[in-house]
Amino acid sequence: MWRAAPFRTGHAAGVALSYISPDGEEGYPGNLDARVTYTLTDRNELVVDFLATTDQATPVNLTQHTSFNLTGDGAGDILGHLLWINADLMTPVDESLIPTGRVAPVAGGPFDFRTLTGIGTRIASDDEQVRRGRGYDHNFVLKRGEPGLVHAAQVVEPRSGRTLDVYTTEPGLHFYSGNFIHGRVIGKGGRVYGPRAGLCLETQHYPDSPNQPAFPSTLLRPGQEYRSRTVFAFGVT
After folding, report:
1. Is 81 among the residues known to form the active site?
2. Catalytic: which of 26, 65, 146, 182?
3. Strand partners, 102
4. Which candidate, 57, 143, 203, 226, has a CA 20 to 30 Å from the CA of 149?
């Protein structure tokens, strides 16, 4: 369990969470001091900051799995949402949904979200990668220049006019279209959630990076700090 401490400033409020993962937990070396801060700002932003240190070299790749549905709570699926992802490349997966180590261009295929595109437009494609994920469950290689925050993705819900823009310091963005929400999941207020009731935009290093030498490294060494920031900015058209 993480320790939690709420905080409030003049323009924001949030919660700071901390956890020490002991040496050997889940097979990972080193005592990892991990912290994550969730901040709500008066600019309609949710800011997620990760910080971690270790006393032994260990892989660290932290993210969060928030699901979004801009239509409204329990108001249907996300297939009508429009999505833009700032990526020319993605990382194909094998039958177990583990990256193969290759990168592939998105141009012209079902993973081409370089312009705002309906999530449901090509989700039933016969493309092998889409079939393996039962939809979208894949990492995209973000286009980056200098270090720092980059505009990674935008979601637009046409009926409500609500928008979500994602900015991150991370090199990858994992898009998950809620394919494995099985059966009837009861949420807050007794609302029922089914497949594709929400979408996730998980900012992170590429999955399986420790086993793929061509991917950006996730190795954290003693004396270094792991830092990662993602901003979810909400608006209306």
Report:
1. no
2. 65
3. none
4. 57
Structural domain contains residue 237: no
Is 225 a catalytic site residue? no
What distances in angstroms separate CA 33 from CA 53, 55, 81, 203, one per listed residue? 5, 9, 38, 20
- Adjacent-strand bridge partners of 99: 93
Within its chain, how far is the Cα of 210 from the centroid?
Answer: 19
pLDDT in 10s for each residue of the chain, 237 residues: 999 999 999 999 999 999 999 999 999 999 999 999 999 999 999 999 999 999 999 999 999 999 999 998 778 899 999 999 999 999 999 999 999 999 999 999 999 999 999 999 999 999 999 999 999 999 999 999 888 999 999 999 999 999 999 999 999 999 999 998 876 788 888 888 889 999 999 999 999 999 999 999 999 999 999 999 999 999 999
Domain with 6 in it: 1-60+218-232
Catalytic residue among 138, 157, 174, 202: 202
171: CATH? 2.70.98.10
DSSP symbols for 77-120: -STT-EEEE-EEEEE-B-TTS-B-S--EE-TTSTT--SS-EETT
